[in-house]
Amino acid sequence: MARIPPAVAAVRLAVRRALPADGPVLVACSGGADSLALAAAARFVGASVGLVTVDHGLQAGSADRAAELAAWAAAAGFDPVIVETVSVEGRPGGPEGAARTARYEALTSAAGRVGAVAVLLGHTRDDQAETVLLALARGAGPRGLSGMPVRRGLFLRPLLDVSRADTRKACAALGLAPWEDPHNSDPAFARSRVRGDALPALVEALGPAVVANLARSAELIAADNEELDRLAAAGLDQAFVPAPSSSRVTSPPLLDVSPSSALDISDLSGMGAAIRRRVLHSWALRLGAPGGALSHRHVEALDALVTQWHGQGPVHLPGGIEVAREHGVLVRVS
């Protein structure tokens, strides 16, 4: 029996460990080395594996490349094979953010139509390291530094402990010809600059282990985050109280928060800063503040109503929400 090349074995093992035990899955494949190696491994390991590729229409010939990839997938036995065409124009968040939002919407829609239990994404250890560096550059807290999760809802990332070099080697060993996305080397994009300049500079200065160490740090921080989030959820439940009667309370909180909910200052004051700020962040989201616009400075302003109270006015949150301190509680006032 021919020996399986080590890179092929590494990718297959990672997929085997992560693949759901039952139900069909879709592989999100762009045709790049990472997702192509992932697709080949999933097809080898899995019992019911389809493939979906998203054409963003951002480059000349993108429709032809999607059709070629779909033809390869059909010949390789993927079922179903889906080409999703999306429009990025007019979406918020810049080119990268708009394309990402459109892509995830398309992947979610495709999975729903075919009843897939998971969509496999080809992010590697190198992608995780890049994500951590970008988060550091933004001044992100533990949530950002935890990087990309192995699983979030429908989306599963089996290759977060596999190197990009191994996905390329796996493709070469299997005779697969990856497509090189020019956006990946375009210095107009921050991630491309990290990939092409910042991370290689760190590797040169600190050694090749820096990539795995950055990814490992994300994993450790993610585990800490999980526990802190659990404690914050309990703290949020503890701090809820009926709000005092106030003619200024004109708009009730959203989701499962009762119309008269508020947070008790004494309960909040007794929490450690890390837990209290998570409580305030979660509460702001429950009030309806959009997560993408809710920043660290908003949470700090809420925290100041608890820890640095000197009679200041209400805090303005994204979504037209105002929160004030009244009668020993924090309460939404508009």
TrEMBL record:
<feature type="domain" description="tRNA(Ile)-lysidine/2-thiocytidine synthase N-terminal">
    <location>
        <begin position="25"/>
        <end position="195"/>
    </location>
</feature>
<comment type="similarity">
    <text>Belongs to the tRNA(Ile)-lysidine synthase family.</text>
</comment>
<protein>
    <recommendedName>
        <fullName>tRNA(Ile)-lysidine synthase</fullName>
        <ecNumber>6.3.4.19</ecNumber>
    </recommendedName>
</protein>
<keyword id="KW-0067">ATP-binding</keyword>
<dbReference type="InterPro" id="IPR015262">
    <property type="entry name" value="tRNA_Ile_lys_synt_subst-bd"/>
</dbReference>
<dbReference type="InterPro" id="IPR014729">
    <property type="entry name" value="Rossmann-like_a/b/a_fold"/>
</dbReference>
<dbReference type="Pfam" id="PF09179">
    <property type="entry name" value="TilS"/>
</dbReference>
<dbReference type="Pfam" id="PF01171">
    <property type="entry name" value="ATP_bind_3"/>
</dbReference>
<dbReference type="InterPro" id="IPR012094">
    <property type="entry name" value="tRNA_Ile_lys_synt"/>
</dbReference>
<dbReference type="InterPro" id="IPR011063">
    <property type="entry name" value="TilS/TtcA_N"/>
</dbReference>
<dbReference type="GO" id="GO:0032267">
    <property type="term" value="F:tRNA(Ile)-lysidine synthase activity"/>
</dbReference>
<keyword id="KW-0436">Ligase</keyword>
<keyword id="KW-0963">Cytoplasm</keyword>
<dbReference type="InterPro" id="IPR012795">
    <property type="entry name" value="tRNA_Ile_lys_synt_N"/>
</dbReference>
<comment type="function">
    <text>Ligates lysine onto the cytidine present at position 34 of the AUA codon-specific tRNA(Ile) that contains the anticodon CAU, in an ATP-dependent manner. Cytidine is converted to lysidine, thus changing the amino acid specificity of the tRNA from methionine to isoleucine.</text>
</comment>
<feature type="binding site">
    <location>
        <begin position="30"/>
        <end position="35"/>
    </location>
    <ligand>
        <name>ATP</name>
    </ligand>
</feature>
<keyword id="KW-0547">Nucleotide-binding</keyword>
<feature type="domain" description="tRNA(Ile)-lysidine synthase substrate-binding">
    <location>
        <begin position="263"/>
        <end position="329"/>
    </location>
</feature>
<keyword id="KW-0819">tRNA processing</keyword>
